[in-house]
Amino acid sequence: MSDKLKNIFIIALSLIVIIGGYFYYATWQDAKQKIDKAETQQAALIAEKGQLTERVAELSVKQQSLEKEIVGHEQSISTYQLEIKEIEDKLTQANKKTIAEYDDQSIAQGFKETYQLDEKSIQIIQIPIVGSPWKERVMTLPIDYVKLTVTAHNSKVACQQQSELKTKIIDLNQRIDVLQAQNLKLEQEKSMAYSKGYESAFAMYLEVNKLYIDLLKSPPKVDLAPSWWQVTLGAIGGVLICTL
Amino acid sequence: MSLIEENFRLAAELGEYAAVKIQSMLRLLHENTSTQIKLERPVIGGNVIYFALISGNDADIDLACEYKNIRRIENELQA
After folding, report:
1. In the prediction, which pLDDT does A135 show?
2. Whole-model pTM above 0.80?
3. End-to-end alpha carbon distance in chain A
């Protein structure tokens, strides 16, 4: 009876050891796989982050280039505006000089030069005012040449309209530049926010992943097995029982 | 610079069409009468200018204004 009990105890103990060992081995293998997977994933994410940082640096350089281009366009617009102002000022001065002229010969000469007329085409004469003893100084020219003054006036009106529209286009372009600059700034701010969030999340991930790997390497133990002194005492007890 | 030239220069401060209208009247007055006026205080780019009678009479001025369809109120000319 005693031998039988002893054998049952030994077999039961052996089974416990074998099954326990098997589960410990299986659990450790599973943990090792998870550790490998977590470490591989971490390495991949670190590499990806490195590439992302390089890409961001490239885009930042491109962004700076675009900003320089915008500044260049703004300077060109300012230069063109100054040139337009200069043309307008010159035109105003030239017209004022023409209008202020008193000498009839100079006025006629200016007209001839403007419309490329020869001397014979132009005459300055005095004609009586109808119903008055007064006379008026007039310039005669062949009737068809009068058409040139009409077309010149039409061209002037069209030119003024074009000029006004071009001014509007310049104003709108400037407005577009301002909006683009604002948009660029908002994009920068948005990218900064994303970047900050990403860095924070990545740091948090590394921290959590480290804890995860550490946990897999050293899992919390539920000490169901007897301690060594208990086994030793049990073994001594068993030997004593068997010898008795 | 003569008085008529000075008047032409001053009239040129008005809008272009008003300027040549006033100048045409001045030339008419100058070449047909001995009446002289001196223009002053032009409305820049506008059609109103003032004058002072230097010599002669108002009737000549009125006639010249009538020929050129210029309105005169006292010493104000509206082209």
Report:
1. 96
2. no
3. 13
